[in-house]
Amino acid sequence: MAVGTGRYDGGYSFEGELLLIHLDSGDVVSALPYPREVLGVEWRSETALRLVLAPCDDWENPQAHEQGHAVVVARSDWGAVGQGAISAEELAAPAEPVVQPDHSGEARRILADLAASAGRHWSVRRRVWAVEGMKDGRVLAALDGVLAESWLPSGDLQWAVEDEEGGRQLVLASDGTSVWTNAERRGRRKGRRWETSAPRVARIAIDTGQVLETVSPGVCTVLVSGGQGTILRPLDGRCKRPERLLMFDLDGPVNGPEVGHFDLFNHPFAVRRASRPYVLVGTDPDEPHRDKWVTALGADGTLRRLFAHSWVPEEHHFGGPAVEFGQSLVYGGAVHHGHGLQPGGAYVVRRSLNGSVQWQHRTDHPATALDTDGDTVYVAYNSGALTALDAADGSVCWHTELEVDGAPTTALSLAVAPQGHLLIGTVDGRILECSPRP
């Protein structure tokens, strides 16, 4: 089976894959030599496969979103095609106007009919970006299409607040009875123009799901947890003036210190169990993604540098998830390389608050989420793996590939619940309750 995937990345490139799935074994081969969005696939014969590929990017090409490159690739045995085996020369073809059909309605009908034939109901449920466990056993989650939701210990849905894009983070408010959440707002193409709806940050009552208040900061923001207040960090990289933290909680917003522009690759640093707010801040106002420092926000509203984010001077490290415990920070990240992520280029590191490295664990895949119970650090990776590291020395306690009923999945969010078990939010919309032991 040939499957074309891909999408526009929102700023420059059209990325995706041509996947060849061996139906007998389930093995999957990504056959293109580099990422390309595949707009169409069609078997012309047992040996000929027609592909329609989006342009590589829209640099200096405003028509790129209406164009495609149509080619026919021939193989005598498609079952023998290896990783990246289709050459760039075989994909070379002039760009021409293409109609990009929307198959989503047909796909949803097929899935709904299949579920109905099994006596079940099907609905879209995707990427769980945040999970939090409550002391009473309830579970909060934020996911695509849902700003926030609450599940009872019985497994029944208590309430859900819908949203056109969905929630991305959950941060408990200082009153202990409500939770802050933010909604992503992506640009959508309307003809030749891009439109983005107003961003949304809301505080929701944990017991009832009532939206208590909605904040409209004017630009999309990330939530920064720690201390008694809630901190918003703007994401508007187009703004020429220096960005400031917005200090916000039950008493209203107050402008905080300058932190420079936010970069989606470099500045994510969501610290769980934070005793105070932490943010990554660059030292160069013109290039804030360079020379990043881990900084802490003091009670007086000033930022204090703690240590450079990269402990290797010649390496540039991307940001990632983090957790605070024992006068230290454990965080994940990846090392920038001009040819993409290299073997061993991702890491989880524990550093004391003076910057000294207590241990590091190198991997081939970036961490998507991590948390700790004080003895063990649990790390989810974008490969679908789940690893438990000894919090004292970083050694591997156990490692597993995440599966549900034999089907592989990937964790986007992870939290250690007050009861000690792991809560995992997956890319396919599941919330898993797992033992902290393999």
Automatic annotation (TrEMBL):
Lineage: Bacteria, Bacillati, Actinomycetota, Actinomycetes, Kitasatosporales
Annotated Pyrrolo-quinoline quinone repeat domain residues: 353-417
Pfam families, A to Z: PQQ_2
InterPro entries reported in the protein's UniProt record: PQQ_rpt_dom, Quino_amine_DH_bsu, Quinoprotein_ADH-like_sf, WD40/YVTN_repeat-like_dom_sf
Protein name: PQQ-binding-like beta-propeller repeat protein
